[in-house]
Amino acid sequence: MSTVAEVAAERSRPAPASGQDLSILHLTPHDELCGIAKYQERSLRALADRPGLRNTVFRWSPYQTRDMDRRAFTAVLAELRAALVDHDILHLQHEFELYPADQFAQIARVVLTAKKRLVVTVHTSPGTRYRPLKLNKLGPRSLITLARDHRERRRFMRQHGRAFRMADALIVHNPSIADGLRRLGAAPSRIHLLPHPVPTVSHDRVSTAIRDRLGARPGDTVVAMVGFIHRSKGIQDAIQALSLLPSTYKLAIIGGMHPLSHDHGFLDELTDLVSRLDLAHRVCITGSVEDDKAMNALIRECDVCVFPYDRVYYAQASSDSLSLALANHVPVIAYPTDAFVAVGRATDALILCTDFSSEALARELLKVDLSTQRERAATYASAMSWSARAMDLANLLLTLAPGVSART
Q1: Per the domain annotation, does 48 fall within a domain?
Q2: How many separate domains does the chain show?
Q3: Which end of the chain has fewer CB atoms surrounding its CB within 10 Å, N or C?
């Protein structure tokens, strides 16, 4: 039986004839209410005019395949195998919730046996699932826990870890994800840290829906949180910070629960907190906003966006909502999670709190120079737009053309 390395060494094909485009098949969420779907749509638009590349989206979305039975998914794999005949690269958007069993591993094996290149954009670090084994005490319960953790690690490697190692290129947008992949055993030479691009959005639509709902007057400051509602996003801290601020500060939570969320009780907890702090007249929750132009108009209504994300999960994941706020030239304030610290090193458009507390968030909201930060956000959005950064991705993909050595 050939090893993974031996099979991989045989994957190189003759280079395409001069003038022939590199053909890329994208396996990704699409046409769905999902941040990764929107990310991929922007990516494809930016790559559309790049010479030498031809892009096609595989018709099956991970949202469709994640709950398929074995028989149905086997048929999808057969369709993928046939589609790869006319393509050089499979580019897969990876998020753990999209591949809850061994779907990712099976897809990687199909690509490997087809002798094609596999590129994976990794949106969340393996470190959120693959943790060091640790024996806390010498005793039966500790040994049982260690054995259970060891079993979970083996399952993780079967379902995700080995597939990451098989990939010809792993694209990440923050250093924590890169570190997680290295700890997993992925070759550092195949991990590519690219800045998270900022979408280009139209600023023509105007909305007053949020300010009307909050009864905001001229001179009031409307603070926004953007994106799906989740416990890891520090929404409670934003509400607590609001309680420390003058009554001229309002909070708009722009978004609703994720379609895959099973934590709908969290919304009740938030409304209970708002009621307990007597902030009902200063807080509004819009619910899910599916139309992009409507979402952007709501964001621009607000004076500043805050991201009091937790230090654990969001140290190991990228935030598309942060890019969306910057795209709308809205000032941003965030907790110093590792992912945001990395962005903060590259630009002064992002203000980082001194610590992970509602008091620190309130202090930054009181002293932020909104006019200056709007200008900085606009400058960063222009420099980091998808159109400006598409060449980074295009050049990486072109290095993986058939006949070009990609593995080390």
Answers
A1: yes
A2: 2
A3: N
Q: Residue 210 — pLDDT band, cuts 50, 70, 90? A: very high
Separation of CA 113 from chain center: 29
Assess whether 102 and 223 both reside in one domain: no
Q: What are phi and psi of 134, to 5 degrees?
A: -145, 125
Structure tokens at 329: 């030239």
Q: Please check whether residues 45 and 92 belong to one and the same domain.
A: yes
Residue 66 inside a domain? The answer is: yes
Which CATH number covers residue 132? Answer: 3.40.50.2000
Residues comprising the chain, all counted = 408
Q: Which domain covers residue 37, as residue numbers?
A: 4-197+387-399
Q: What is the pLDDT of residue 178?
A: 94
> Can you give the pLDDT at residue 146?
55
Rounded CA gap, 194 and 250, in Å? 35
Claim to verify: residue 161 and residue 92 sit in the same structural domain: yes
| pTM (2 d.p.) | 0.82
